[in-house]
Amino acid sequence: MREAADCEREALMQLVSFKWLMSGKGWSVDVRRIQDEPAYADSCLRRGAASDLAPLRRCSGELRGLLDASARAGPPVTAAPLSGSQPRWPQRAADLSRSVWLLAP
After folding, report:
1. 90 with 76: CB under 8 angstroms?
2. Domains held by the chain: number
């Protein structure tokens, strides 16, 4: 079984890739909303899956799988809900913004 940190790292990398691929098509993705709002995440992932760009379609499918797995597993013990709602992703947007520098070349 994979470590939780590995899953979180993979989810972060997929989310960043998805955001940039969507941006390349001229579509904006709000990272906080895609983590917190299932309807918004579904809308973004559907748009990505319907794209004519193969890497975006593939990334969309992989991200949906990670998002669904994360939702089934529930939030990690250390995650605190915002405004009484449970997060759908292991990391909050603030955690992502601190982690993104690790992905820079």
Report:
1. yes
2. 1
Q: What is the pLDDT of residue 35?
A: 82
Judge whether 79 lies within some domain: no
Domain containing 53 equals 4-74+84-103
Helical packing angle, 38-49 and 4-24, nearest 10°:
60
The reported pLDDT for the residue numbered 100 is: 41
Closest alpha carbon to 31 in 104, 102, 91: 91
What does the pLDDT look like over 37-68, one tens digit per residue? 899 999 999 999 999 999 999 999 999 988 77
Distance, in Å, from the CA atom of 45 to the CA atom of 103, rounded to the nearest integer, reads: 22
Would the pTM of this model clear 0.70, i.e. be above it?
Answer: no
Q: Determine the Cα–Cα distance for residues 89 and 11; give it in Å rounded to an integer.
A: 8
Q: Give dist(CA 80, CA 45) in Å, integer.
A: 25
